[in-house]
Amino acid sequence: MEELNVVKNEYGTEQIEELSGLSAIQKRPGMYIGSTSQRGINHLIFEGIDNSFDEFLAGYGKDIYIQIKSDCSVRIEDHGRGIPVGPHHKWKNLDGTPMDTLTGVLTKIHAGGKFNKEDSGYACSSGLHGVGIKAANALSDLFIATVKRDGKIYQQKFSKGEPLNNIEIIGNCNIKDTGTIIEYHPDKDIFKLTLEPNCKDLQNRIDELASLNAGVKVHYKNEITNIDKTYYYEDGIIGYTKRLVNQTKLLFDEPFYVKGNYQLPNNKIIMVEVSFIYDDDEKPSETIKTFANNINTYEGGFHLQGFRNEYRKQMNKFIADNKLSDETIELKYLLDGIYAVVSIKVPEAEFEGQTKTKLGNAEAQSAVEEVLRAAFESTFLTNKDFKVILETIAVRSIKVKEAEEAARKARASARKAGNISRMALPGKLADCANKSGYSELFIVEGDSAGGSAKNARYREFQAILPLWGKIQNTEKTDFDKMMDSEKIQVLIAALGAGVGKNFDIKKLRYDKIILMADADDDGSHIRALLLTFFYNHMPEVLKEGMIYSACPPLYKIVKGKQNIYIMDDQGLKDYKAKNGSKIEVQRFKGLGEMNFEQLKETTMDPLTRTLKRITLDDAEKAANIFDICMGKRADLRREFIEANAYRVNLKFL
Questions:
Q1: Mean pLDDT across the chain, nearest whole number?
Q2: Which residue has the higher pLDDT, 20 or 183?
Q3: Is 614 strand, coil or helix?
Q4: Which of 245, 414, 509, 591 has its CA 20 to 30 A from that of 228?
Q5: Does the CA dihedral 106-110-113-114 come out positive or negative?
């Protein structure tokens, strides 16, 4: 019997290869930019922008220009020092002649001005691997670098990482006019899905960078979306913190702000900035954004740990000194309602992975702790106004703890009475036949649609949960009242991972949660209610990208023996414009009106369906709209109505 997995080819010295130059990036682009999807397109832009901001942090250039052209090419310009040019003292061309420094910076992996610990050109930087801008060069079919230095304008062109010419002097400029212009067009052979960036994510990142760096002006122009905007903030992370809170009512008016330096043994410093404020809302929340050298370290790291440690220590000291409580208050209660930004600038930053999501410098913890402790001891605990606010925060935290303990006791009593013990798998749930492999849960609007979906599904891995009617608006319902809702209980039981602070994503019974509602306004309302529930009480599933919206069609057109499905009114209008208006059109009033073959073909079959992944930002917007339109603050609702009344189409009244 022949053995499995036996490779028949030779494996000797001839099979051992080294990827030289930029070929490693071209061979395995995902290792360097995360993916070759739209996320990778954005990553290339972020790397270029980060280089310009590194120049700003080094004290050079207050204006940065970012342009997305109609052909998806990118232009990034700064007024920094300009990439060095001239023969390099170590690098050689293939013919043995000295390589120009600009050429080496753009083609040699792990080469740049951010490695020399003793004499680096940067006090701190976000680019630490010497890969970022080279990735754009390697993965572009045209890449142009233009440098202004020493009164001259230098330029070199590349294609797929290979120089098209030697560096040239293309003009003269004022001796004080310095900077770098990077222009590139992504290679369609690498980025096969799309060359167009995710413009929303791009603008969010630009806004974030401008917020973190008071005084810089970022001029953004996008020919694809026709947006021309300048991002500029004088108030830095103080204003950023206030914008995080959005429309929520504040516990006090202005954020606490801390800024200081931490001395390192090598005479270098870590710069620390912290800003925080609290909302005055009943809904539990905790928002702490952390940054290291302008990189959004959304997985945290030692700087986050430093903030959490010292804040817990100082607040409990304040509570004890002022005899507000005899107990130590846990951090989760002290941070309930907080909106905080922790931003540090550290030399020789250590990030986990090229995509830099977590800070690994242990000294960052000590830096944040020392700067925060100094602020408490010298200002917050001695200033009368600050002490009043700290007492407000402390009393709120104590009340939150007391309320949760009371709710826990109430839930324990309910369990003893057998109320929640009946939350086994609900009878309406048609579960997967295969309990161990990949699985999907369709949350379906209505019993009739649920019946069609049960017939249309793949029983091995697709489960169906029909919801009769709309769930509660959890934006304005307190937790205990929400838990009395039978629909909410059924949903929680089907997912099997708990809810709120007891939610454990590891226990989730499904890999995808798909919201399947009618393709009309009522269906949109149901999706918004479900999103608001997930955002408020299971945000982890949104962070992990596990929530999707099904895309059922609104219309069917019969053309001979062919059925053509159209998603919305605009799609129907476009179809009629191309094919004439004399066509047979069926409008689906709801999912239940489709037979199961149609539902399977258009909406449920992984080979033919379309799913839209719902992000945390999408759910946050839905929750914000519900908070305005159906929340407890009438003033916000009045402002919204007055601002949007002109949109109402009176012919339907």
A1: 84
A2: 183
A3: coil
A4: 245
A5: positive
Domain coordinates in residue numbering, the chain: 23-232, 237-408, 429-552+598-635, 555-587
CA–CA dist 8, 19 (Å, integer): 24
* CATH 3.40.50.670 applies to domain 429-552+598-635: yes
Residue 465 CA to residue 534 CA, distance in Å, equals 16
Residue 328 pLDDT: 93
Cα 419 versus chain centre, distance: 39
**What is the per-residue pLDDT for 645?**
57
Residues annotated as catalytic are 445, 518, 520, 522
Q: Is the dihedral of CA 224, 227, 233, 237 positive or negative?
A: negative
| 294 close to 209: Cβ distance less than 8 angstroms | yes
Topology alike, domains 237-408 and 429-552+598-635: no
DSSP 489-517: HHHHHHH-S--GGG--GGG-S-SEEEEE-
CATH number of 237-408: 3.30.230.10
Query: Is it the case that residue 211 has pLDDT exceeding 90?
Result: yes
Topology (CATH) of 23-232: Heat Shock Protein 90 (3.30.565)
Q: What is the CA radius of gyration of the chain?
A: 29
Query: Does residue 285 contact residue 337 with C-beta atoms inside 8 Å?
Result: yes
Length of the chain: 653
